[in-house]
Amino acid sequence: MKIPDKKEMFSIPNCMGYFRILLIPVFCTVYLKAHTIGEQYLAAGILLVSTITDFLDGQVARRCNMITEFGKMLDPVADKLTHAALAVCLAFRYPAMKYLIALMVVKEGFMAVMGVVNMRHGCKLKGAKWFGKVCTATLFFLMLALVVFPEIDRRLARNLIIAEMVIMFLTLIFYIPVFYKMKQEWKK
To answer: Which top CATH class is 1-92?
Structure first.
């Protein structure tokens, strides 16, 4: 990847990505210090702003022809950082979230290592697969629900977390043959 120039680094979609990253500590502080339902909803509102910004940065990039290699890297980094921060914050209220975090580390670690190995051989994953998108969407909606509905039944929350763990584990399993196929291509 070439070093992005100033115009590319500070394009509108990339600035939205930076904004999302800056919202992470704001959300964490508000969420972890929340003692009232109003404070919980303020944290949910911050998360909603981050979500809307995530949606808009892609729309702006596509419609205004501002898609860049740097932006393609920045957006998923902002997503992963947001998801990780959300999961850690939620683990303070929902103990089962610790296990989901452990699985996230394994899955994302595998994806990162395989991505680097394949890039060294000139291969690159051409976008997220449908099962990766499903996993990301269900993970986000689970965490959003746990933030928006702080009074959710603890057993229901635990069961939703377990269901997400199943989805994440299956996603990890589904990515193994994808990376194996990529390895076969660069071995030729």
So the answer is: mainly alpha
Token couple for 77: 């980094």
* DSSP state at residue 153: -
Q: What is the pLDDT of residues 142-182, one digit of tens each?
A: 999 999 998 999 999 999 999 999 999 999 999 999 998 88
Among the listed residues 132, 139, 102, the one whose alpha carbon sits nearest the alpha carbon of residue 114:
132
pLDDT tens-digit series, residues 51-75:
899 989 989 999 999 988 888 889 9
Q: Where in the chain is the domain with CATH 1.20.120.1760?
A: 1-92
- The two tokens of residue 103 are 């699985």
Q: Per the structure block, which two tokens stand in for 16? A: 């939205």
The answer to whether 106 and 171 have CB atoms below 8 angstroms apart is: no
Instruction: Say if residue 143 is exposed, middle or buried (CB neighbours under 10 Å; 0-12, 13-18, 19+).
Output: buried
Q: How far is CA 93 from the centre of its chain?
A: 20
Q: Sign of torsion, CA 93 94 95 101?
A: negative
Contact 122, 186 (CB under 8 A): yes
